[in-house]
Amino acid sequence: MKYLRLILYFSICLLCFDSSSFAQTYYPDKINKKAVQLYNQALERAQDGNLASAAGLLLQCIDIDKKYVDAYLSLAGVYGQLKSYTSSINYYEQAFALDPDYTIEYKLPYSINLAGLGEFQKALDAINELLLKKPNPNSATFKAGDYRRRSYEFAVNYAKKNTDKDYVFTPKNIGSGVNTSESEYFPSLTIDGQELVFTRRIKNFNEDFYYSKKKGDSWDLAKPMEGNINTDQNEGAQNISQDGQWLVFTGCNRPDGFGSCDLYISYLTSQGWSEAINLGGQINSDQWESQPCLSPDKRDLYFASKRFGGYGGSDIYVSHLQPNGKWGEPENMGPEINTKGDEGCPFMHADNQTLYFTSNGLPGYGGNDLFYTRKGPGGVWSIPVNLGYPINTINDEGTLFIAADGKTAYYASDRSDSRGGLDIYSFELRESVRPYKTLWVKGQVFDKKTTKGLPSSVELIDLSTQELLTKVQTNETGNYLITLPVGKDYAFNVNHKGYLFYSDHFSLTTASPDSVYEKNIGLQPLEMNASIVLKNIFFDVNKFEIKPESMAELDKLIQLLNENPGLKIEISGHTDNVGKPADNLILSNNRAKAVVTYLAGKGISTQRLTSKGYGETKPMADNKTEEGKAQNRRTEMKVISQ
Question: What is the pTM of this model?
């Protein structure tokens, strides 16, 4: 950030002020000459980037002359650049004690180092003292100080409202299987958390993609991604799809590019990863596009772009996959997310509802902070929330990846235990800023008669809102993976033309299993006497009024009847054996009639519909268990003719 660079420049390179402008006790012209010589050497070392050597020389200066205020100030500035915040604060305070007037402008870098330790109230006090004594609103110091004051006020207020008082930020280096003396960054995982894909910069020049497999609690030795995806050209900022089949990434200054950096895609094949394909002029512009992220169902592509027409320097856009398999016109995500500053690094969690991103335009701690926003009903995004300190700091934050469990996060950093350059770390995310814990269902859709895999459409619907949350297309052999955020009840529908649709539901509002679901689904060809259980038609106990959660299932049945105008069906009702058989027969018959009445009300001819109640006479399971009874309480559909 320009303010931070300005501050560090003043901290190290500013030799002295005009002594006549201060009522001071410090006299630069009376400093020991040998100390001054060492001081000048220290400045040269600092300007060459040799900060450790500069610090050593400055310590010698202070040892020679204990009143050398400029040496204290510059040493504090050097330690600030080294992020040794405690040492920096210590030497600033020693300088302030020697001459509070001469050193007043250094309250600005002093406050930044306090903020680096999370001492935001002290940082705010220091900056207020500076602005009180240096009230010129046109000065660079006042402008930089006023910017910092707003950041510190935000931090202090955030701390007051934060409920996670016991949260401890303890990033863990994920080990030598992944991290090396080179830089590793942009971590991305498959939904099961068993494969990690990342970028490695070789010899600080060429970027290639690597992957590592999870082995117990550690990661295997990383390998370059097989196939044709790694080249001698620039590629980075990648994101692997949750099913591990697609990889989107950024390529810069390539012969087939539209702008400085473009978005590309590669597909996993039996020979490895395919040669990258430019996503084309619909996605890419003549400007900068980068940092792509796929939604878990691969229907939405989020990315950062500096194309014309945005709200600031870099904005976040989303493109939706069209029925023809092409990406639609990118949509700017709007002024609630994008600002006059820069937004980037979008990451859509596996819950397909929580989007994380960076921004330097929204209120925060300074530089690029991490935020999240949630997608609500109708696709409306909530007001972005800052992830808070210590996840966000006074420095620039970058890309973040959060596993399906909603609490394990991965990011790149150059912490003190780094193997070299940037390493990949994991940490537990603050509870209040977590996405929804997400399970998933995987399996194969196949023809029930031939067992041949069927490419099919798989839909997940929120039963409470009837909103389509996720829609995925299986591959050619019928394999699919779909995510299930915990905390909702879902309808689960599978469709293929010429077959009866399949339905199920997952009740995850109050409880959820610890393992994934595996569900292989046999679809029944549309033929005489073919039948299915309509698992998402619901009634209250001993009632026959259809509950609102049933609408998605009924609409799917209407779609089937409209697509097959010659189809005639029977709707049948069934109960368990609780209560009197005669009462159960009446109840089941009324429930079947209620479904037929609904269909007829939606324009389906009654000539195509019959209803019948069977009561408890056709159980599917043993009525001795609650699970068996639940299976027996059902509504079925059977093909009468077509």
Answer: 0.85
